[in-house]
From TrEMBL:
Pfam families: HTH_36. It comes from Singulisphaera sp. Ch08. SUPFAM superfamilies: Winged helix' DNA-binding domain. Residues 1-21 are annotated as: Disordered. This is Helix-turn-helix domain-containing protein. It comes from the Bacteria. InterPro entries: WH-like_DNA-bd_sf (IPR036388), WH_DNA-bd_sf (IPR036390).
Amino acid sequence: MVKQSGGKPGSTKTPGGYADVPHGIAADRRLKATDCRVIMALLFHACDRSECECSDEQLAKYAQVHERTITRSLDSLEGLGLI
């Protein structure tokens, strides 16, 4: 699902490339902008796998938000059945 032309998972640099975002995610009005950033971070770290193994700290660096924001967003996404 994620296509990369540069950058590495967990790096602090902005990764190059692009990610395919499912239409259902892009059009879901229940999602806040932060939730979308967290989904993008999950897609980046998943690297074409169905699972993502990374820390809240890594997600926070990629999404450029605080780790507590990651926790809240993950709880919200789980409650919506998206993760």
